[in-house]
């Protein structure tokens, strides 16, 4: 059965490292196809369900628990070809999950714990975990138990957060994994390569791991270091592909957050846990997820040599199907704290639209994405806008930046007004109100985008090469 790899980039931020005390987890969902249409919906809470989940990727089957929380999902439209991939979102307990960051173990470790062909693959992980957990720690524990029970057919890393904790979990062989809590004052970036470094097995508050992993490493003589227990060194890869496909993305993100630190984009020792003197905002993460080595010789849209421009794989791509930032705020009531910022177009050129997590459905332009182009669909509208901007990048980029700036300003105003009104509500009334506000934000961004699209079309007419200067009287 055909399987299309994911090749994503992830960012995690502790609450004391963020601008407003939020926890933040974010990821680009990248495929190897330019279009893999997705939709955004809300699964209702259920009681007493009797349902078997089946993977379209490898035939994996599992019985789902009887009771499930309401949760958001961003699945593929063509389930028979691509699989479900619920991908990212919040459940009703304000727990966030994003799955997965494709991660690759080395041949030494896979030789002794090979991948399980019919195990639980990435297309089912979100569905099997998010509706059933009450915290980020619960997420790691539940997923770890499922991997122990069913095994994994691929290397995958998963992001979890709640209002206090941010966790990154790396599954690298058929049954073995390690998870690390991101310190409150730190950030981390990962890009398709084992990221976690030194593991402290005497610190269970900040590390979790698969049963028996230490004995496994010792028994098979897998630790290449004379001292320490570096998960990246033991289980990860360090190849030429890594140095051109993976590490440069981490380098660029760390360069943005810590410009004072000089590092090599091809280094295999870029740190996982990082600290910066500045506070990190949602806009910072959006910029990185849409970045393409901006203002460096490596920018494919820049002015470097061809050798430099195509040397490294950028973060934001045309095959980024959705880009999301899952924010859990600590300065508002819990029932309105969770916001998912999501971009359906190229993240370099289209806005991240905010959606409150405490909602019971989504606008049809998001929930009813068709497989073929349709301007009524948010997925296709934002992707069409992206193609237009890139087609005349040097001519359109300043107008695009102004469009994005105005959109971000308006979004913050709408959220502030919504937060103020929401404090007067509770229960079902609050959920209904936040759902309506999600609709209102979608409508506002749609109108702005259609206006901008019209501006691009009109400007593009003047850029046609099918023109000829003639006497104005003719």
Task: Write a compact overview of the structure shown.
By secondary structure, the chain is α+β, with helices and mostly antiparallel strands. It has helices at about 80, 105-110, 120-130, 135-150, 215-220, 230-235, 240-255, 280-290, 305-310, 365, 380-390, 395-420, 425-460, and strands at about 10-15, 25-30, 40-45, 50-55, 60-65, 70-75, 90, 95-100, 155-160, 165-170, 175-180, 185-190, 205-210, 320-330, 340-345, 355.
Straight-line N-to-C gap: 63 Å
**Morphology:** globular
The largest β sheet comes out as: 6 strands, antiparallel
Instruction: Indicate the radius of gyration in whole angstroms.
Output: 22 Å
**What ranges have pLDDT less than 50 throughout 5 or more consecutive residues?**
1-5
Total strands: 16
Please give the count of helices: 13
The percentage helix is 25-40%
Protein structure class: alpha+beta
| Oligomer type | single chain
Q: What is the N-to-C order of secondary-structure elements (H for helix, E for strand)?
A: EEEEEEHEEHHHEEEEEHHHHHEEEHHHH
Strand order of the largest sheet: 12-1-2-14-15-16
* Binned strand content: 15-25%
Mean pLDDT: 96
Notes on the protein architecture:
The structure is a single chain. The protein is built from 13 helices and 16 strands. It has helices spanning about 80, 105-110, 120-130, 135-150, 215-220, 230-235, 240-255, 280-290, 305-310, 365, 380-390, 395-420, 425-460, and strands spanning about 10-15, 25-30, 40-45, 50-55, 60-65, 70-75, 90, 95-100, 155-160, 165-170, 175-180, 185-190, 205-210, 320-330, 340-345, 355. It is globular. The chain starts with 8 loop residues before the first strand and ends in a 13-residue tail after the last helix. The model is unreliable at about 1-5 (pLDDT under 50).
